[in-house]
Write a structure and sequence with these properties.
5 helices
Length: 127
């Protein structure tokens, strides 16, 4: 299989989505700060949104509004965009909920570092 510059340019949305997902996954796996983990999850969500919107794109297509005077045309699929709008609402809700849980964790343990919380919990269990 031969790769050239036109292949990369034609698939830049998919490549960008994969890179964003890997960055988000790396952030979630390597940082012990809970806020950074939430940011990594948000980066992963954004990459999925980009991927789905890219799937719905059709080159040379128009918005799916049927006008009898213009005749038949190729239309863009509106379903991925509608799903992404719902996904964005869910992502924002989950982020707000996770941040509120992090506030409660900080009130209980005095830190948002996962390693320190695990140490504090192990000390509590030993007592």
């Amino acid at each position: 299989m031969k790769f050239d510059l036109s292949t990369i340019v034609n698939n830049i949305n998919y490549i960008g989505a994969m890179i964003l997902f890997i960055i988000g996954l790396y952030t979630v796996l390597t940082h012990s700060n809970l806020i950074k983990k939430i940011i990594g999850i948000n980066i992963m969500e954004t990459s999925i949104f980009l991927f789905f919107v890219s799937i719905g794109y059709v080159k040379g297509a128009v918005a799916p509004i049927i006008d009898p005077s213009t005749g038949e045309k190729v239309f863009v699929n509106p379903l991925p965009a509608a799903m992404i709008l719902t996904g964005i609402v869910v992502a924002v809700s989950i982020t707000a909920f996770a941040l509120s849980i992090i506030i409660k964790i900080h009130e209980a343990y005095g830190t948002i570092d996962l390693d320190e919380i695990m140490k504090l919990r192990s000390v509590e269990e030993d007592e």
